[in-house]
Design goal:
It contains 4 helices and 6 strands; from the N terminus they run βαβαββαβαβ. It has 142 residues and is an alpha/beta fold. The chain has helices at 19-31, 44-56, 96-109, 124-135; strands spanning 5-10, 36-39, 64-68, 84-86, 113-117, 138-141. A 6-stranded parallel β-sheet has the order 4-3-2-1-5-6, sandwiched between helices. β1 (5-10), α1 and β2 form a beta-alpha-beta unit. It is globular and about 40 Å long. 36% of the residues are buried. The chain starts with a strand and ends with a strand. α3 packs parallel to α4. Helix content is 37%, strand content 19%.
Length: 142
């Protein structure tokens, strides 16, 4: 399953990233056998990717986008973009602030690929990117 799964890693604020660039990168991952995309749903990058995956389903009906939530009452502004909502076990006992990095770790540990948009070396996206590098994921950087 990991070899068919990619995690989306990017900053909450990703202005200037073109949809065509994301679609091209997603197609590259699909050509490598990726069918499942794990999304945290917390920012512009996540929703840009989710919209692009949703569009690509017309040409690649076997792909899916799963939203991985850090807590049960997580607000989902565009539920139609996601095929499934996953709430990893064990997060319920964590404080909200700790649940987000734990959710990010879950996504990295369940993926073999990562689509990344990292522009600074600090913050949650940068830490998740570092974990993906350490875990040996195939990284595709935008």
């Amino acid at each position: 399953m990991k070899e068919r799964t990619a995690v989306l890693i990017g900053h909450r604020d990703c202005f200037g990233l073109e949809e065509e660039c994301v679609i091209s990168a997603l197609k590259e991952l699909i050509a490598q056998g990726v069918t499942d995309f794990l999304c945290g749903g917390q920012g512009n990058f996540d929703y840009l990717c989710a919209r692009c995956i949703h569009q690509l389903r017309a040409d690649f009906p076997g792909i899916a986008c799963q939203l991985v939530i850090p807590y049960p009452d997580f607000a989902i502004p565009s539920p139609e973009l996601f095929d499934e909502v996953i709430y990893p076990g064990g997060l319920e006992s964590l404080p909200r602030k700790a649940a987000i990095p734990a959710r990010n770790r879950y996504m990295v540990l369940h993926a073999g690929h990562a689509l990344c948009y990292i522009r600074r070396g600090w913050g949650g996206a940068a830490r998740t990117f570092a974990l993906a590098q350490h875990q040996g994921l195939h990284l595709l950087q935008l």
